[in-house]
Design goal:
Elements lengths: L2 H8 L5 E11 L3 E10 L7 H11 L8 E4 L13 H7 L3
Parallel strand pairs: 2-3
Antiparallel strand pairs: 1-2
């Protein structure tokens, strides 16, 4: 799985401003695809709607099984998304 490939596709959704895709260890599947999503201002959607759209654009195993909506993505001082911090969002 390439997180960047999945991010590129999901970023084309009309309501998505930013997205970070990470893998979360899973005893059954080895790893689950997880996405932290920042919606465009004033936009609203659900996890299920985003996943349904994703199934039309991606192979089924690439569609995030876990989706959370956040106000912003964690970034380092250089402005790069900190994937380790994003991954921690899915541990809670």
């Amino acid at each position: 799985m390439s997180a960047l490939e999945i991010e590129e596709v999901l970023r084309t959704h009309a309501l998505v401003a930013e997205i970070a895709v990470v893998g979360k260890k899973d005893p059954q599947w080895g790893e689950r695809v997880c996405a932290a999503v920042v919606l465009k201002e004033g936009a609203a959607t659900t996890r299920d709607e985003l996943r349904k759209w994703g199934k039309e654009m991606l192979a089924p195993y690439k569609v995030p099984s876990m989706v959370i909506f956040v106000n912003d993505l964690p970034r380092n001082p250089m402005g790069k998304v900190v994937k380790a911090t994003v991954r921690n969002l899915f541990q809670e």
